Amino acid sequence: MARRNLNDLLSFVTVAREGSFTRAAAILGVTQSALSQAIRGLEEQLEIRLLTRTTRSVSPTPAGERLLNAIGSRFDEIEGELDALTELRDKPAGTVRITCGDHVLRTTLLPKLTPVLRRYPDVHVEFDVNYGFRDIVADRFDAGVRLGEAIDKDMIAVPIGPQLRMAVAASPDYFASHPIPRKPRDLLDHICINMRQSGGGLYVWDFQKRNQQQNVRVEGQLIFNTSTHIVEAALAGLGIAYLPQEEFEPHIAQGRLTNVLDEWCDPFPGYYLYYPSRHQPSPAFSLVVDALRHITGPDASPRSTSPPTRRLQKATKGK
Known about the structure:
The chain is α/β, with parallel strands linked by helices. Helices cover about 35% and strands about 20% of the residues. It is built from ten helices and 14 strands. The chain has a five-stranded mixed beta sheet with strand order 4-3-5-14-6. Strands 12-7-13 form a three-stranded antiparallel beta sheet. Helix 1 packs across helix 3 and helix 1 packs across helix 4. The chain is elongated. The N and C termini lie far apart (about 50 Å).
């Protein structure tokens, strides 16, 4: 195949992976018409259709899927080797793609990476804010951020923050007209602010006090799928909220929220950066990992404790 068609093959791989000519054109820095022409030329040369196009989506045909599986990883290897060559430069360079929640991005990732980005202007970081679990290998991310037990066993996990705790809080105005709950089951008699999970169901509040565990299905007038709005509703006196403690801390310190059931909220492992084992990480990626790494004790392994999985999903959701 003529050398010029390597660009056409890269165009095909990008369109097939993105499922969109618009997104693929933006990634490749070409016009949609030029991209469409390149794909048509490749299909004409191979005398077989590679992509099925509709008004709403683009997907590979069986032949296109076979070609994508055969050459997609080769382009990834080439890209990885090119990134590795930056070791020979005076300054590291390259792009690192990370999928994470909004809250950890604001409170941990950006503050820790700011000095690196200022020192190394050729290092670029792309963040994908997502509230569900992503397959970082299939979606071509360099790394993702999750909590403890949610990390797959075959991934490398690097701690990037301290242990976390869930917390129960409401405004003083709310407690002025409602009794303070003394145990988790008391929440059944309260107005609580619910969170909708990515799977569609409502989050079940789970509590742990040493070896005791209790799960409570709370009820209330409000349901959100982001923590920011839950905090705002709690501040407005619209009910009791349940989120990671750090979400409430500034408001508790100012007396705008009151923390309850603290003894039922045991700590659990915090955020981890996770990524697949790689033989030759780029200098840019190594810089990012080192900047985010949090020094912890031997008991801070993401698999050394086992907090309830729902709590982990909840703490990373909707941030």
